Amino acid sequence: MVSHEIDYKIYGDDIQFVEIELDPRETVIAEAGTMVYMEQSITFEVRMGDGSEPNQSLSGKLFQAGSRLLTGESLFLTHFTNKGSSKGKVAFAAPYPGTIIPIDLKELRNQLIVQKDGFLCAAFGTKLSVTLNKKIGTGLFGGEGFILQKVEGDGRVFIHAGGTVIEKQLNNETLRIDTGCVVAYEPSLDFDIETTGSLKSMVFGGEGLFLATMRGSGRVWLQSMPIRKLVRALSPFGANRGKEAGSVLGGLFQ
Fold first, then answer.
1. Domain 7-253 homologous superfamily, CATH
2. Sign of CA dihedral 228, 229, 234, 238
């Protein structure tokens, strides 16, 4: 299904929102509860599924909606459509501070793997599904578990990340990353987990027991402040938990 072509503008620095401009009869899909405002010509409808397969059976829609529960997201997606005769705008924001990343799927061979809570909104026609980490080590210690989201299509998708985001282009290279800092990556990359090194490094290095590794060629997006780190920093006695969280016990319970 060909995705709708949408225009957009991102506002803010540390706490951003994205404003989508829709032509008449254009639609954008979004996570439930992310809408900030919408103009009069915009209407919305809550649906099971992303609508990328118009002839999908009821059982298929139920399966797709049920799989979203595995990622911790709402059972439903909200479809916002411009029912007016001129352009209309609708805006979305994520539930915690960070950065919104606009990504054109046509530039990524029409596929992207996203952390389970990273999807914000996308042009209608974009397909959302669940993908599983094939390696047990990555699932257990990778910071995001076994379950990730696969985003497919030829339109624009908006991903949310915590803190500041950096995009890295790997060319048959290896990048070692703090677990949980991976936001999204191309399927051409191999995502794995390895130990941080010697026992001394694990105990006193402050980086935990494991690091994520990306190998191959493709793009990966990294976040400076995963939500789990933000929650830990804001929790009681958070100021005294910096290095303890990176010790052996801290690494186990991150």
1. Mitochondrial biogenesis AIM24 (3.60.160.10)
2. positive
The answer on pLDDT for 17 being more than 90 is yes
Residue 212: pLDDT band (50, 70, 90) is confident
DSSP string, the chain: -PPP--EEEEE-SSB-EEEEEE-TT-EEEEETT-EEEE-TTEEEEEESS-SS-TT--HHHHHHHHHHHHHTT--S-EEEEEE-SSS-EEEEEE-SSSEEEEEEEGGGGTTEEEE-TT-EEEEETT-EEEEEE-SSHHHHHHSSS-SEEEEEESSSEEEEEEES-EEEEEEEEEEEEEETT-EEEE-TTSEEEEEE-SSHHHHHHSSS-SEEEEEEEEEEEEEESS-HHHHHHHHSTTGGG-TTGGGSHHHHHH-
Structure tokens at 46: 């809550």
Q: Where are the domains of the chain?
A: 7-253
Position 171 scores a pLDDT of 97
- Kindly report, residue by residue over 135-173, the tens digit of the pLDDT: 544 444 444 545 788 999 999 999 999 989 999 999 999
33-54 average pLDDT score: 87
